[in-house]
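Dear Dr. K.,

Following up on our conversation at the group meeting, I've run the structure prediction for Glyoxalase/bleomycin resistance protein/dioxygenase from Rhodanobacter spathiphylli B39. I'm pasting the input sequence below exactly as I used it, so you can double-check it against your construct before we proceed with anything downstream. Let me know if the numbering doesn't match what you have in your notebook.
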Amino acid sequence: MTAHQVLATVAVSDFAASSAWYARLFGRGPDDTPNASCAEWQIARRTRIQLLSRNELTEAPCHAGATSVGIMVEDLDEILHDLQDRHIDVPAPQLATHFVRFAPVCDPDGNTVTFVESATS
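The predicted structure tokens came back this morning:
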């Protein structure tokens, strides 16, 4: 399979609080707000993170806090420093293998956004 775009949807219980948290996480407000309970950030050329109130997810049972999103970054230490400046709690980076470092952060519902860096670059 070849995809031309990626959209990851994160279910949240308190849309206003989570929108504010993701705005701090990404360092800006959403790029698009299709409706009052949906916000989207374009984080790469063809990659978007969509924040959606769990009340809007009617197609399948969905629980806020059950989403995990991985974001590949160039400089993990710089990202974590920037997040701390935006009042996001960050852990110390972990080495998964000799080639990958990562650091997971949690939104107000416990959804995980993990920043991943190749340790060989």
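Two things stood out to me. The first strand starts at residue 6 and ends at 12. The chain is about 20% helix and 40% strand.

Best regards,
J.T.
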